Amino acid sequence: MARTPDALRQKPFNDLPLIPYQQDIAANPDPYPYILKGLHRDFRRIDPSQMQTTDSQATDSQNPAVPDRAALRSQFAVPNLAAGFDEQNPPDAKKIDACVHCGFCLSTCPSYRVLGTEMDSPRGRIYLMDGINTGEIDLNEASSQHFDTCLGCLACVTTCPSGVEYDKLIEATRAQVDRNQTRSLPEKLLRKLIFSLFPYPNRLRWLMRPVGFYQSSGLQKQLRSLKLFEKISPQLAAMEALLPDLPAEAFDDPLPTVIPAQGKRRYRVGMLLGCVQRLFNPAVNDATARVLTANGCEVVVPSTQGCCGALTHHQGQEAQTRELARQLIDAFDPELDAVLINASGCGHTLKEYGHILADDPDYAERAKAFAAKVKDVQEFLADVGLTAELSPLQSEPLAMVYQDACHMLHGQKISFQPRQLLRQIPGVQLREPVDAALCCGSAGIYNILQPEIAAELGQQKVTNLRNTGASVIASANIGCFVQISQQLEKQGTPMPVLHPMQLLDYSIRGVALASVVASDGT
């Protein structure tokens, strides 16, 4: 179910209005003023006498008071519930108990920062998981909507001082919700459309062929002015709004299956093309191949490769994810020195193949071996070093801001390497934005399923990036590229958003950035 920030801030649940985020924090040092009770959207005030605090918690606004779990459970217990998690890999109780409820995750959680409700924070969701595990809370629309608002950005995993594996917890929970929670017919149809199209490039290409005419004929502009899609469905409107201008290269895979290294071969690497990226921004793949070959890599691009399963994995579609993972493993030569990816969301999932296929007797060991060879292309190049000569992108210094994609920063722990590579381009001056670790709101298909929350996060991200005064944004994830480009257009401040591989490619080939920007019309 999609959540609307303004609606959540203004509409009452069972006649008890929610306090707006800013007022809530100002008036209540403890950001845990509500608790989900059983089967209803019923948030009740917690009696301060039921709260346990320590001296350090009482004086630290970043470390809010911890609810007395026994008192809360006795007050809000809902016995004999019929619906809950099934026995197939429920959230691990030991991982749940690792959470000490310190509250450090709240300030870094994008959904909590937008919605301001405890149950839309990692800590609140862990309470829900625990309650459903123990049969004290039902898995229903009221509880599952809070799992749906999670972007899966993993900022809480980076922040948590106790090392709580929230990524594993939300992964298991999403699969449970997918199996056990009945969704509305429109939501079922939308999810069916997404999971039947996005992971399959050829199907997506077939659907996208009329888009060029739709965009160039004026029909898109006319329908948008009438707000037709918004009247049908906010999610459908969000999907349409994210459509970029598709180049002719989007409808074919022009790269040969083997691209020889320039000069002496240093490495033989496999390269993933991505599902959405090969349609929405194929120039990134072309640039990646040129950068790799210029630096002594023979690049193998299997023609049989499909989707890595990232999109389905992040939404709890376990069976489809495992099947896509098996197909991708089969497509790549196991003797490659490395398997490289230039989209962070894909890279994080590829590195999880050992976990995803751990119970598959035929693929478990192969999956571990495959995952061990997966590297983000920036991670790889930073490790092996650049050998190609780099030229300035313009005659004067170039102010640039690098946007950290969540699954790069929090999922793969990669932040230094992209900056290291970009700084090697003569004249580049990197600037750092405020809230660099905050999600842009793309989060796979989150900006389609939860468009209002995603839009608010996108606006914040773009404002922070623009405030650096940079003239170019470097972004290493296709979802972030689409989300940020859309928000820049909405704000009327067009600005080039380029993958670091594109910037390195221009520098290696001596292409002036101004000529690229002019040709793109940015």
Q: Any overview of this molecule?
A:
The protein has 522 residues and is an alpha/beta fold. Helices cover 48% and strands 8% of the residues. The chain has 31 helices and 13 strands. The strands form four sheets. It has a five-stranded mixed sheet. Helix 18 crosses helix 30 and helix 24 crosses helix 26 (416-423). It is globular, with a radius of gyration of 24 Å.
Short description:
With 522 residues, this protein is an alpha/beta fold.
Query: What is the radius of gyration?
Result: 24 Å
Described by the principal axes of the CA atoms, the overall outline is: globular
The CA-CA distance between the termini, in Å, is 35 Å
Query: Strand pairing plus helix content: what structural class?
Result: alpha/beta
- Looking at the chains present, what oligomeric state does this protein adopt? single chain
Strand line-up of the largest beta sheet: 5-7-6-8-9
Number of helices: 31
Number of strands: 13
Sheet with most strands: 5 strands, mixed
Q: Residue ranges: pLDDT <50 for 5 or more in a row?
A: 7-65, 71-82
Residues in β-strands, percent? 5-15%
How are the SSEs placed, and which strands pair?
Elements: H1 5-10, E1 12-13, E2 16-17, H2 21-27, E3 51-52, H3 55-59, E4 66-67, H4 69-76, H5 93-97, H6 110-115, H7 122-133, H8 141-148, H9 155-159, H10 166-180, H11 185-197, H12 201-208, H13 211-216, H14 219-226, H15 228-232, H16 234-241, E5 258-259, E6 267-271, H17 277-280, H18 283-294, E7 297-300, H19 310-313, H20 318-331, E8 338-341, H21 344-350, H22 353-356, H23 364-373, E9 374-376, H24 377-384, E10 398-403, H25 406-411, H26 416-423, E11 428-431, H27 446-449, H28 451-466, E12 472-475, H29 478-490, E13 497-498, H30 500-509, H31 513-520
Helix pairs in contact: 18-30, 24-26, 28-29
